[in-house]
Amino acid sequence: MARRITGRSHGDPRTADTRAKVKDNYRPSRDEILRYIAENPDRAGKRDIAKAFALRGDDRVWLKDLLRDLQDEGVLTKERKRLARVGTLPHVAVLDIFGRDGEGILLAHPTEAVGRGEPPVVSIRVSRGGSGPAPGIGDRVLAKTFPTDDPSGPAYTGRVMKIFEKRTDAVLGVFRVLQDGSFRIEPVERRQPELIVDKEFQNGAKNGDLVEVEPARASRYGLPRAKVLNVLGSLTSEKAVSMIAIHAHDIPHIFPADVIAESEAVKPATLAHREDWRDLPLVTIDPADAKDHDDAVFATPDLDEKNLGGFIATVAIADVAAYVRYGTALDREAMKRGNSVYFPDRVVPMLPERISNDLCSLREGQDRPALAVRMTFSADGRKIRHSFHRVMMKSAAKLAYSQAQSAIDGVPDDKTGPILDTVLRPLWDAYAILKRGRDSRQPLELDLPERKILLKPDGTVDRVIVPERLDAHKLIEEFMIQANVAAAETLEGKKQALVYRIHDAPSLAKQESLREFLQTLSLSLARGAQMRPSQFNGILERVRGADNEALVNEVVLRSQSQAEYSPKNIGHFGLNLNRYAHFTSPIRRYADLIVHRGLIAALGLGPGGLTQDEEVRLEDVAVLISGTERRAMAAERDTVDRLISAYLAERINDRFDARISGVTKSGLFVQLPQYGADGFIPVSTLGGDYYIYDETARSLFGERSGKGYQLADRVEVRLVEVAPMAGAMRFEMLTDPKPLPGSSRSFHKAKGRARASQSRPGPRGRRR
């Protein structure tokens, strides 16, 4: 292996050993590239790295792919064309000054997250005799940052380059009245400090209110001050916890007056431009607590003698495009929201209730406009043909998943009994056909149960359950997948622009990382340019029922790319489909509304089709709605963390069974399986041994003992600290470290890597 690539400011940054290897098509390792980036923050662009390692031609393409993969993995981040290790501060960073240490030195946090753990602390150097105002608590500054050698103090020092104008951005907090009558703001973000509110800036807030506040400049000592801008509601009321996430993630949740007025003025659709399907006994099958119903299904055997054993499956989807036209206030608001957001205690809908819960909800026994697809399948599950229709339908029954399943299992009720033989059994027979096609297709089959939080009337947690996965769920899921495929195929065949739902195959770097990990478990993953989901399924099948089943499922999941929207098709790796588009939920996803409009335009189905103006904006819209989807996921996750943290706040010092959900240099993230919430165990609390992070094995192991902890290990922990409003929990490890799987060779290899990286001198002779 080549020696360390140093950060010299002049000349060739490579060592003689490295230069010699260049002649032999030498490519640097991941560790060498990451070390170079860490040691050369000012020269960490792609061109700089390629030049440092003398990479040319195909090697530069290889480097570009590797750097992109490292970004996808969350190892690197990119800012202003420079790369940096996630979890480390860039050489120049924007910092928020939040307090002082015991000696009065200013302390700051970076404004942007730099990793999953706690943000690094920066001690601020203030030049004596400098011109201009000195920075103070509450200021936001631009500073050069320098790593420190002191493990007990701040990780960085910072030299202020510029003080930004006084911060006016509002932050969220909980208004608290202390025993002495003073006012404080309890933070709702893990990085946010407590704030003092003077009486003249109370603005009517009461104890327990969720408020927006504006931080102000603080005095030299003490907590920063703030003034209350808005009172958002009381935390003693229902839905308060999700309101924190709504404001923290800037999710639009109040419909403007013009949007409401437009929705109220909409007239119900008529039979114009529609086929009359009201006699077809389509049924909706949804969760028992669903308030809107945007899909209905029906199936019947194919009577064509050329398709013996085949079925015709019909999926009807609410025709949202009939009411939400491009360029209207309704459309602009729906695009801004991108999707509905689902919290345990509320839904923030993409469309007003007049549209989502009334005109576009396929209510039982009521006329509703729909866009329907009729699909013919052979006995082996292959789709032979399909056709789209703009229809008027009338749902024959509103069913819950459990209700439909009970009828099939022999326990029908008053509603399912009359339609058991005519509607439900044919649906299940059609699903058996579709399942054959699915089994032949072999999509990725991860076993990762989803949890659902059940709340009490006051909005607090009652219990957390794992709903049973029924065939009724799988039936609707497969019908919807096939309808989505049909939509993409039709639009592509008509050369109509659309937004695909794409899911890239795991990057080569992630594949290699997974391959190295599997080797530690004596499992192999074949190399090949064209990876298939079936190869992952083979691995998952080999560990089914084994002690490491959860670990392997988790690592395989983390090796996957993130699905997103794009007008450029690359297929859907997880579903193993060449083309796929979201068509089945236009009430709650803007992507589906675009696909509906595309079908209407391409097939000449009447007004409300995709316009040329929309087509030219599809790439920008795809980026926007991919972002709103990620925003919704983060808000939903934060709300679950806060609800569970509040639920467990009274159980300090209790013991819990847990599973390690993340491994970092700074410690372990653990998840409580019975609650689905995460907490953190700092590495400094793990015991007397010195723990080393092994990225390949996803583990921390003791330098002396060789024993440690690995991703997905089942452990026992004690809850020691809870910050309910921030959704943060800290635990203490009770389970002793164990010998890690894999050979002693891999143990000593990881140990050697860690020692080598710690012993190499950094810039200016520092030890790392």
Automatic annotation (TrEMBL):
* InterPro entries noted in UniProt: CSD2, NA-bd_OB-fold, RNase_II/R, RNase_II/R_CS, RNase_II/RNase_R, RNase_R, RNR_Ribonuclease, S1_domain
Q: Where is the composition biased (Basic and acidic residues)?
A: 9-24
Subcellular locations according to the entry: Cytoplasm
Sorted keywords for this record are: Cytoplasm, Exonuclease, Hydrolase, Nuclease, RNA-binding
- Quick one: where is this thing mainly located? cytoplasm
In residue numbers, the region (Disordered) covers 1-24, 734-768
The keyword RNA-binding is annotated on this UniProt entry:
yes
What does the record give as EC number? 3.1.13.1
By sequence similarity, the record places it as follows: Belongs to the RNR ribonuclease family. RNase R subfamily.
> Which PANTHER family has this protein been placed in?
DIS3-LIKE EXONUCLEASE 2 (PTHR23355:SF9), RIBONUCLEASE (PTHR23355)
Please report the name of this protein according to its UniProt entry: Ribonuclease R
Cite the source lineage.
Answer: Bacteria, Pseudomonadati, Pseudomonadota, Alphaproteobacteria, Hyphomicrobiales
